[in-house]
Each structure stands twice: as structure tokens, then as C-alpha cells.
Amino acid sequence: MQRRSLSHSFIACKKAGSLCVSAILMGGLLVGCSQGDRATTGTGTLLITANGEDFVRQGFIDKDGWQISFDHVYVTLAGITASQVEPPVDITKALSPNAQVIVSEPTTVDLAAGDENADPVTVASVQPAPAGRYNALAWQVVTPDSGPAAGYPLVMIGTAPRAEETIAFQIQLADELAFQCGDFVGEERKGILNQAETADVEATFHFDHFFGDGDAPAEDEINTGALGFEPLAALATDGELTIDSEGLKSQLSAEDYETMQALLPSLGHVGEGHCEIII
Asked: Which of 248, 10, 51 minimizes the C-alpha distance to 137?
């Protein structure tokens, strides 16, 4: 699994419960824009996907030696906006898109669904979508009213053994976030939609930033900046830990809680491409 840097810009996040688009539809809202002189030809199908990567699907050893395995990782996305923007994209500034696809309806997905080789989870399929290069992606992580993660934007359920000890955990985080990202960075291109074809854009979540990576050197930034599972394991009783954000705030040390809060904005990526937290 590839290691990543934790270098991210961080600014205050708005309460993401209010959607950042002006119309709410079941499915997609297509918006044609007149900015710029780049034209698109025809339409196709644009898939919006979410990916927890191998760290979620296959499990991993955290920086403290805990073998983390996820049964479910529920995340609820809303206000998803895929944009065609004349490069270069500056994710710290307002975008002037040539075309956009907007999916506003909150959708809860399980990033751990399927087997260890499963594809990223499809959040929405929008057709027709304007053909062109979708090189900017924004989304919110919001609180669902119902379903398996009701009341929490992010829920992680699984087990973590180490030596003779195993912790069964359910961690329910109440933080709502909103990400603005640029072009997908990875081994293959994403977001290039040709007429009458299908393309995808991906909201990627890097959970190794949160827990660290036992395959990386201890002095690697992915580990020195991570919370790790050890502070969470210390809160378990009889091998079980069910805790939410309020419990974490009251039971973690002030330093560990501050670290956790600082790490949450680093979860969102587009492949290896970094994102900004938006207000």
C-alpha cells in the first residue's frame, strides 16, 4: 500500500448540514455554464464513487501494531459537485466551471462493502452528464437521519487484535466536513467523459492518516502525525469499545483529542490528490 504525506491546508469547516447547492433532486442536477470558451460535445454517464482503498477493504496494521479490520465504514455524502474547470485548478479559490454535475441528496455508503478486491462504492450514476474532463470534485460529509449510521457522518465498526488482546470497536464521529478537491491523482486517469461513454470521479478516504501505517518506518510522517489505535484501545472495557465524539472528547487526553480533530480534514482526497476544507 502506498504511503502518503499528511501535508494539508486546514481552515475552519462550515456546518455541512446545509447543502451548498441551490436545488435538491433525487439523482443529479445538470448545470451548464457559460464561463470560458471550452465546449463539450454530447453527453455520457458520470459515476460518483467513494473509495476507502485497501486499508478499509483488506485491513492493515496501524502504527502501534494493532491489526485493524473493518466490518463496516459508513460515510454519508451530500452536495457532491463534479466540475469541468479550465486547468490549472486552484482548490483554494472559487471555481468558474464550464459544466457541472451536482448530486445533492444525502447518501450513506459502506466503504468496506464487498470482498478485499471490491471496486469503489458507487454513490450515484448521473445520465445524461455533459461530456468533458471533470477535474474538480467537492462533497460534504453530513449527518444522516436514518439508516445504519443514523446520527453520525462517519461510523467505523470492526476488530483490532494485537498479541493476545482483541478489541471490538464501534467509533461514531459526529464531525461534519466539506471538501474541495482538484484533479484525481493516481495510476489511471479518472473523470474524462466522452460522448455516449461512462467515466467516474472518486471521493477517496485515507484512513491510514488517522491510524498510521505499520508498514512505514516509525519516523515516517504518516506515523508521527497519526493518532493510532492505542489511545482508543485504552478506552475499551472487556475487549469492547463503543464510543462517539462526546465520549472521545471526555475520555481521550486533551492532546490525543486535539490530534484526532486535526486529522479528520486529512481523510478526504481524490486518489492521492489533496483537498481543502471549505467554509
From this structure: 51
- Beta strand pairing status for 165-173 and 107-110? unpaired
The residue count for the chain: 279
- Tell me 225's DSSP state: T
- pLDDT higher than 70, residue 14: no
Helical spans, DSSP H, in the chain: 53-57, 208-211, 221-224, 230-233, 245-251, 254-263
Question: What are the start-end ranges of the E strands in the chain?
Answer: 29-32, 43-51, 60-61, 67-84, 99-103, 107-110, 121-130, 132-133, 136-141, 154-162, 165-173, 177-181, 192-193, 198-205, 240-244, 268-269, 275-277
The residues near 208 (Cβ < 8 Å, ≥ 6 apart) are: 1, 3, 4, 55, 60, 222, 226
**Residues 160 and 59: beta-carbon distance below 8 Å:** no
Q: Which residue has the higher pLDDT, 39 or 79?
A: 79
For 17, residues 6+ apart whose C-beta sits below 8 A from its C-beta are 142, 143, 176
Residues 6+ apart with CB under 8 A from 13: 175, 176, 177, 178, 265, 277, 278, 279
Instruction: Provide the pLDDT confidence category of residue 6 given band limits of 50, 70 and 90.
Output: very low
Distance of alpha carbon 213 from alpha carbon 276, whole angstroms: 23
- Residue type present at position 233: A
Q: How do the domains of the chain map onto residue ranges? A: 29-277
Alpha carbon separation from 269 to 90, 113, 147, 234 (Å, rounded) = 15, 19, 25, 29
Is the Cβ–Cβ distance between 216 and 168 less than 8 Å? no
